[in-house]
Structure formats: structure tokens, C-alpha cells
Amino acid sequence: MYSNYKSRFTVKYLIVITPDGFVCKLSKGYGGRATDSFITNDCGLLSCIEPGDTVLADKGFPQIKSELLKRNALLVIPPFAFDPQFTNSEIDETYKIASVRIHVERAIQRIKLCNILKFIPITLLPHIDAIMHMCCVIANSNHLLKILKRPIKKLKFPGILRRAAVKGRTPYV
User: Fold this and answer.
1) Res 171 pLDDT > 70
2) What is the pLDDT at residue 83?
3) Domain assignment present for 10
4) Number of helices and strands (H, E) in the chain?
């Protein structure tokens, strides 16, 4: 879909990130005008949600709350300031969410580092999903290499791949 705002064609993806910062699910590409809630409902992500799961999302996803409640899962969205100022509890909640959300933002940045995504000729549009898949694989590989370079005592999540595989959420490769 052509975006007047960005003055080019845009494609949207839903990307699921593990708490360790790995991409574990990638939707197919949708036209840039598709809403976040539509993509979430259409791509089959909700069928992967298990009871007890927590989903961190931003303000574009409030419509999926009822679906997650049906599956006994929790939706966490940063609070919105209805008054000019947050309350102390809202400030605390925002900090907690931001400390996790930073991993999501970093994962998305690692994907965007793939130079091919800066400009994709229209002739490659039929291959955009495969291109995005490879960018996610590269991002995961770079993230894993960065983790493996750390000294063992500094690893926050030792055995991340093993634990992720046990829970059925293997990194996207």
C-alpha cells in the first residue's frame, strides 16, 4: 500500500520477540494501511497464546484484550496520561514496562540494520516475506553472537536457547 505520510509503499509485519530479545514469530507482510489489531487477528498469533502468557503491546492493540482474556493471558499496555500528569503508580508501571520494552525496540533495530530494507525495488515485492525472514535470521544470529561474547558470569539468561525450546518458543531461524 502506498503511504502518503511516508511517500512510498509500505509493508507491515507483526514480530514476536522473546523476553531474551530473539525474534520467534514473524507474520506475513500486510499493506501499510492494515491496522495492528487486524494483523494480530489475521496472522494466527492468538492461537499460539497459552494460559498464563503475558503479551506486551503498545497503544495500537487494545482490541485484542478480550481475545487474550478468553485464553487466560494478560495484556500489558503502557498507561496513557488522561490527566496532565501520571500518578506515582502509573510512573512505576511505566518504568517496569519500559525496562522490558527496550528489548523489543533493540530487536527491531537489529532487523532494520539490514541495508536491503532501506530501499526495496518494486520488482522484489513478491519476495518481501522471504527477505524479511532472512533479516530476522540475521538479527537473531547477531544477537546470539553478542550474548556468547559476554563472560559467563555476566550472562543474564544462561541457557536461553534450551529454555526457549522447552517452552516451545525457539528463536526464529
Assistant:
1) no
2) 61
3) yes
4) 5, 8
d(CA 17, CA 104): 6
Degrees to nearest 5, angle at CA 62 with 56 and 65: 75
Q: 13, 162 in Cβ contact below 8 A?
A: no
Domain coverage including residue 162: 2-166
- CB-based burial, 41-63: b 16+ in 10 Å, e otherwise: eebebbeebeeeeebbbeeebee
CATH of the domain at 135: 3.30.420
Contact 27, 45 (CB under 8 A): yes
In the predicted structure, residue 160 carries a pLDDT above the cut 80: no
So what's the pLDDT on residue 119?
Answer: 86
Phi-psi region of 108 (alpha: psi -120 to 50; beta: other; left: phi over 0): alpha
pTM confidence score:
0.75
Centroid of chain to Cα 105: 8
Residue with cell string 563472560: 151
Contacts of 103 (CB under 8 A, 6+ apart): 17, 19, 20, 21
